[in-house]
Structures
1.
Amino acid sequence: MSRQDRDVVLSDVHNDAPSCPDCERDGIVTEWIEHRFPYGREENLVELSARIPVRRCEECGNQFLDAEAEDLMHEAVCRHLGVMTSSEVRAIRRQSGRLSRAEFARITRLGEATIGRWERGELIQNAAYDQLLYLLTFPENLVRIRERVEMRERNPHSMTHVAGAFRVLNVTRGLRAQAREFILTTVGAA
Ligand SMILES: [Zn+2]
């Protein structure tokens, strides 16, 4: 996600600025601070930092954090783990012609609820899923797996599928023969 995209998101949030959760008035001012927070435990414990908005009510002086601060801290955790942020995961469906979550789940065979949790930042995808998601940021890869899924749906017992199974069987036989020869040679040399 580019800096420009993020600025748009931030100003969107800013437009419907929250009212004070204590006195429910609208006079909220925002101060951006560099927030440092611990992440992980024991030998994996690190200190991360994120620039987050702190809201302050001009009426009663109450200070609070909202979902925007939470999202920015979540992003810092994703960067630390080296995985895509939830907004980057959300961007995959948007870039590919605004696919519905159900359609995206059908094509990728991922669980629809899981995709939702990744997109909302409730759950961070593991490294293997993150590699898959990264490949899906290239729309042509989504086209490839969609064609694969649709071919199977049209004809689940197609010859292509059977031929694929035989090919695997042949390779396995070949590998077994090679493995036998390898062991015999080793024993003979000893
Ligand atoms: Zn207040």
2.
Amino acid sequence: MTVQKEKHFVAPSLSLRYVSTSKYIFAALLVILVEWLHYEWYHLNSSNVIGNGLFLIFFYVISVAVVDWLRKLFVDDRLLKNIELRNSISKIINRAEDYICLVSPYLNLGNELTESIIKAVGKGVEVTLIHNSRAVEQNSPPAEIKRLLEAGCHLYHHPNLHAKVYFNERYFMMGSVNLLIGSFENSFELGMISNDRNWFQQIHKYTNDILASDITRPTTVDDAEPRAGFCIRCKSEIRYDYSHPYCSNCFKSWAVQKDTTSKEANCHHCGAEYEATINEPLCAGCAKGAVSGQ
Ligand SMILES: [Zn+2]
Ligand SMILES: [Zn+2]
């Protein structure tokens, strides 16, 4: 079967199933209020049904536009893609006056973003960064993590973090993009930026819940140090690297079949007996505190 690439999604036609109903209700209330207070039900009581009906419809359409415009006075939100996401993250960092919170499973900020974060700390902005426990082994340059910690940023890690959200005291940005240099240019990413207070409250709660979780730990300078690990097949000592848990000999023999379900003898981190696989190289205990080295 061939995939029909010409197929595209058509925006749904005006149907109450698809649109947010609240603005239409507000507009209707506005029409009723003005009709009552200003016209004293004139258009509803008069006998010119067509003329008055047309007037009320016209008035209603204008009211919907007014409600839309009123919302825009309070809420500023936009859809963002690719490089626009990076620019928005930079703005969130550079324009913060109070705090910045960056939640990204993987970190590789590059020099420019790291510098802007450190500059923000210098201005007295409180910076919190939450990443996945595996980030340090997989993508994050240890030197970058050290710089952020030494500058006074608060870093935390959670083993299952996959959410991405970035905010300061005024705006939040949510979407698919990690704080990985290059991912803005090379992949198709989508997100949104908004200052909607209702969303903000829920995002704050979500972030606080991650921070309050028992398995969220502060990231320390030690976490960024390269550590020793074990080959999951022969238990020889190798450099700890979550995505490369075999010694070079065992990797060569694994690569013949490339069987990702192949069960090995021990945990890559602590060396304890464990049916590790290339995708799950850590025993349960180590997976919980992957960075802290529990
Ligand atoms: Zn080996
Ligand atoms: Zn282990």
3.
Amino acid sequence: MKKLYRDLSPEARASYGITEDGSEESWVYCLTCGRAVPQGDCVVGEDGRLECAYGDCRPTSASHASTDLRAWDTLAQEQGGAAAHWPEKPEWGRRYPLRDADL
Ligand SMILES: [Zn+2]
């Protein structure tokens, strides 16, 4: 059984957390598969980082040992107009292409 972010103690959350508030309800975006997931559902990785919650998500290159997660709201700001249609609360399982992604 994989350990999830929501199972962590407050102290552990402080080191694993991706979003500023560290809430398990706040959303993170996976750069590897382009989908969003509540932080609480993210898997606690062996390398000390959180990993994508989607079971079919795999790092695409050897340079990425694990999946790459970002805070949803921070990333939306960085993406600017390309993320103008991004909702405050994303949908589970939906892909949200990035500005730089090949569409
Ligand atoms: Zn992913």
